[in-house]
Amino acid sequence: MKKAIAIVLLLAMVLSTVACAAPAAEPAEVAAPVETKAVVEETAAPEEPAVLEYPVRPIQNVIPFGAGGGTDVWNRALMAAMGEIMGQTIVSANMTGGSAGSIGIDYAWKSNHDGYTLAGTSETPLTIPVQTGLPQTSKDWSYFIAAGSPGVLCVNKNSQYKSMDEILAALTANPESVSIAGTTGGLWFALAKLFESYGDVPFKWLPYDGSGPAIKGAVSNEADCVVASAGEVKDFVRAGDLIPLVVMSTEDWEFPEFGNVEAVTKKVPALGAYLPLIQFLGFKVPADTDPAIIAYLQDAFKQAMDSDAIKTFAGEQLCVMYNLTGAEASQMAAAVESKLCWVLYDMGQTKFSPEEFGIPKP
Fold this sequence. Notes:
It is a single chain. By secondary structure, the chain is α/β, with parallel strands linked by helices. The protein contains twelve helices and 13 strands. A hairpin with a 3-residue loop joins strand 10 and strand 11.
């Protein structure tokens, strides 16, 4: 009996020793060590950058003035060059009417702000708020400013007036006896009205939906004179149909293939306080358009402006190249807007004050 008890005790001791020496069972789930998690994070594939799906269909470019003017010809040249770069069709169409091109510009603003409706522009639509009351100002648009050309006053080759002195004498003797054509509401309108407000020689103003139609008005003797950019009248000057009398600036200007054109301030010195008022040409999109789309358009615009075709075109159009986008273009547009709108307002030629739209005095 004692022997049996001793055997049982011995077996119990052996089993206890074996149990102590055996490793503990691992739990069903074990958290990964910290260092293992770090390795996983380092080796994970980076996220793919978002792909810009633009442009995937043709783009519309609204030109708010008539055919043949600076805004028209520059937009058609730019859109042809940019369309090739973008691999997409850009359809340019004239949409005239309203003061300072307001019909076409308002159409572009009311279209989707998705990069598929561009608005051809010059400096003239900057006056739309003070002329019509539409609220959008330069701060509401992103600008692509290509170039600009000096303004000139021309007469028909068969005009009874052969010099600026003769025109001023006629206007002094009989105000508004000499008519002048130009684009309604903007830069050329302001330049024509300077004669009345500060030179005491008021022209009879004949408004047109763009410089192209205004120039044709002068060529066909509907108007005695026309005020437009040198680039816009160049072909008619070279053909001998129009004769430049003064450049709308404070310094003389050499008109290629014609010769020296005197500064208007030599004839009407009082205008010097309000000049220069400069032209710019290009296009714009609403400023709240997707920034990635604006950046894409900026890149295409820069490539187009750097092309030999556009550089040659600018020379043919007697233009100074600006080639501005982003903050630089916005600053230029705001500066021109301020000066042009306040000049018109101070002359009593606007329906609204620039102050109502937050346009600061220059």
